[in-house]
Design a protein that fits this description.
alpha+beta; Cytochrome p450; 5-stranded mixed sheet; globular; binds protoporphyrin IX containing FE
Length: 417
Amino acid sequence: MAASFDPFNASYQQHPGISMSEARREEPVFYSPVLDYWIVTQYDDIKEIFKDTDTFSASITLDQITPSTEETVAVLVQHGFNPGLALVNEDGPSHQERRKAHQEPFKGREVEALLPRIREVVTGHIDKFVKNGRADLMADLFQEAPITVALIFMGIPDEDIAACRQFTLDQTVFMYGRPAPEEQKQVASNLGRYWEFTGQLVEKIRRNPDAPGWLPHVIRESQRKPGLFGDNELQTTALAGLVAAHETTTNASGNAMRALLENRETWDRVCADPALLPKAIEESLRYDGSVAAWRRLAVKETTVGGVTIPAGGRVMMITSSANHDGSVFENPEKFDIDRPHPNRHMTFGFGAHACMGATLARQEMRVFIEELTNRLPHMSLVEGQEITYLPNTSFRGPKNLLVEWDPRLNPVLADRP
Ligand code: HEM
């Protein structure tokens, strides 16, 4: 099993959590020679790893799974691409101190203040296709709205949003995917151009540090506590922040809509009673999370689930497998919005690095799906479509999600053709 494990194969790509059920039972911790990673699949072991920050470093979190070719490296060098630590791959007291300094814009009331803008973004996109009777929810909505919301959240000036969007689409393929050399070069070129752009962005925001958003907040903190964030950290926040905020939420929304529409009765219940949405979102994050695996580095020899992991061993925690662990979630393969405590899932990580954007992500998903339940409750998945996933160890969402409906039956009269 260990020798044949390949996170790019069809069964892992189709449903990583379910595909690991035999491993969870028979060989819950194993070494994968293909990846050169120690694979961990059970809930309790994964939770212990997240908790034990002395033994497990987050430093490899953003490393590329598929190393750069020489040509790609040359492209990056050409752009002076040189990101430093990005919170998510930082350890120890400096991580805690910087995390605290980042916190303010992530708090509930700050995120709530963004609700009207999130709704405006999503309704604008739905307006474009609501009369058509057919849409690709990924291309027409979820690859569009979350990136705009992420850029607003970050405090990117309105006039720069279009340029940032172009540079930052599909970044995760670079770190967690298996891009062909040409694709890798193309993504690297976008990353490099965005990196250069972040330098100008930081300068621009510095001139208007009272503006709302995450980056202006961090710039103010850097002025308040000199030495806490240098220019490199500010640029790195602009770069890594978008990776953190955009594709994760795009994919989570796609996964949630797939699960809901495949479970028609549940979708109809949610359409009739929007108060069920938070439970439905939480269960979709458990059932088919948009982050399927996360990484750590063992800094000293240790044992996990009785298996010795050497110092320097790289560990891949299959969090989607933890989310399907029957010892924690009864009947885990069922999409059940009534289950108690679906929020015990590991999709947002756990402990010292647990996702800071979870409140924002949940709010966004709530608005996206609520608008769809209001305006297109009668939509269904196009039958016979093959739903495929981008080859990626960690970030997971459908490439396309085709839906159809009779626009003459749209419940909002203004939405009828
Ligand atoms: C459904 C959407 C999302 C998922 C599944 C997700 C998942 C994750 C995961 C797995 C981690 C690492 C946790 C760990 O190492 O223990 C993380 C960290 C982080 N996320 Fe999210 N994320 C999402 C949305 C967002 C959004 C919208 C933002 C907003 C900017 C965000 C910001 C962050 C930040 C700043 C960290 C680093 C925290 C730290 O290292 O201390 N995330 N996220």
